[in-house]
Structure formats: structure tokens, C-alpha cells
Amino acid sequence: MFMKGKKGVILGVANNKSIAYGIAKACAAQGAEIAFTYLNDSLKKRVEPIAAEFGSSDKVYACDVSNPAEIVALRESLEKDMGQIDFIVHSIAFAPKSGLSGRFYDISKEAFDIAMDVSVYSLIEVTRELKPLLSNNSSILTLTYYGGAKYIPNYNLMGVAKAALEMTTKYMAEDLGKDGIRVNAISAGPIKTLAAAGIGEFRFMLKWNEAHAPMKKNVTIDEVGNSGMYLLSDLSSAVTGEIHYVDGGFNIMGMPAVSFDEDGKQTIAWDGNK
Ligand SMILES: NC(=O)c1ccc[n+]([C@@H]2O[C@H](COP(=O)([O-])OP(=O)(O)OC[C@H]3O[C@@H](n4cnc5c(N)ncnc54)[C@H](O)[C@@H]3O)[C@@H](O)[C@H]2O)c1
To answer: Which ligand 1 atom lies nearest to the CA of residue 40?
Structure first.
């Protein structure tokens, strides 16, 4: 039981396809006590049964991270119901649809500000607000994607937000290390979730990743969850500021692998129309 005695809060469960759900499952299986948050009333109905599944019916709180008052209210509720906590999972991102396809240079300032606020600044604000509750052996985890490190078609505005989130992870890791707080990010391969549905040509991303990742497969929320559990537990007690790829190895590829046909002619190993 790697998480026995650990208490924490997971922000970002929308349904049982969410990456945050995979992380909750892995942490609960290792004995963690978990509080959950939901974005709005329609998601509350989805999150409540999930919290119940993990024995946390009494620890479900509203938290729209674009509303600072809701982050303060979350801290007050957690303090009352859990006291000290040992981990925070930030599995939240949002960009207006106009920023997730089309010409990059058309991105509006309004869309840019929203994406940065919800997907990046929220990690700083949630951490600052909840810091008084964090133990001096605690761990914060956020979720990023390869489109924050390299160009990925259509990822556009979210790519810029993820680049900022990854640097935020590193600066926070340095700042909070002296307080016994570790900060890491998992860069997950593409997974079909609610958030992913907003990205243009997402199905093509899935196909491409599966065809070209060294492991020739897409990753699951259980696999991301298990790696997340490692980063939240004492198993990773000397790991901070890391961008940890859980993507079947996709990020190591410089170009697609090639194969040869019977005549020795080089062919690209993937038929995109399959
Ligand atoms: N699915 C993928 O392919 C993939 C890959 C790498 C990284 N990620 C990242 O993983 C994280 C989780 O996404 P997911 O794919 O599990 O999708 P998801 O839709 O299940 O989760 C996204 C969550 O963000 C929450 N959210 C959005 N705006 C919010 C706000 N203002 N306040 C509070 N919560 C808000 C939603 O309610 C939802 O729970 C995101 O940061 C995403 O960018 C996803």
C-alpha cells in the first residue's frame, strides 16, 4: 500500500474516462484518501458517484478554477474535512475551440487569456491557496502533452499553454522544494476524453501515435494513473520538476520508423488510410 495514510485532492474528474479518474483509481488502490472537485452542476452529477466509488461521498467540492472565490472555498472545506493533505492532482485544461484548429496566428487575445488562466495560472493559484494545508512531504502533479514541447497539428493554443505549464512545473518545483513539496508533470500520450474531443483531427493523432510510438500502442488512463501514483507517493521521494512521458515512447522518435518490402524498397511503416 504505497499511499496508505496519504490524503489529497484531485481536481479534474469529469467522468470515468478522465485521466484524473485513472489517477484516483491507482491512488485509491494503494490506500489513499481522496477529495474530488467538479467544475459545474452538470458535472457534479457525474463526479458524485465516482467519489462514492472511492469512499469519498463526503468529500466532493465545487471548484471552477477561473473563480478565485471557489479556490478559497475549496481550501476552507478541505481544512475542515481533511486537515492536512499530502497531494494535489491538477488535471485541468481548457481552451476555446477557436484555438484548437485553423491558423495559429488567428488566435484571439480573449481565447489566449482564457486558456492561460484555466490551464496554467490555476496550478499556481491552487497551490498557493492550498499550501497551508500541505504536509512537508507532499507532491503535486499536473498533466501536460507533447504539443507543449514540439509542434503538433491543431494543438495550437493548448501547445503554448502546455509549454507554459511545463515551465511553471519547474519553477514551482524549485520554489517549493525547500518546503518539502515536490511538483511534477506527466506528459501523457493522446487518450480519448472529453477534453480531447475539442482538438481538431484528434482521431488522426491517436492513429499516428499508435503507429509510430515504439510500443505501437496508445496509452490508457490506468497506465497514466499508475505513473501518477508513483509521482504522488514516496516511491518518487527525490523526483521533482520532471516532465515524465507516459506515451509508449512516442516522444523519443525523430522520424517515423521505416521498413523494407520484399524487393528491398524502403516503405513508410504506416498506411494512414487503414
Ligand atoms: N486526453 C489527452 O489526450 C491528454 C493528453 C495529455 C494531457 N492531457 C491533459 O490531461 C488533463 C485532463 O484532461 P482529460 O484528457 O482527462 O480530459 P477531461 O475532460 O476528462 O478533464 C479535463 C477537466 O478539466 C476540467 N476543467 C475545465 N475547465 C475548468 C475550470 N475552469 N475549473 C475547473 N476545472 C475545469 C473539466 O471539468 C474536466 O474535469 C488536461 O490538462 C489535459 O490537457 C490530456
So the answer is: 37
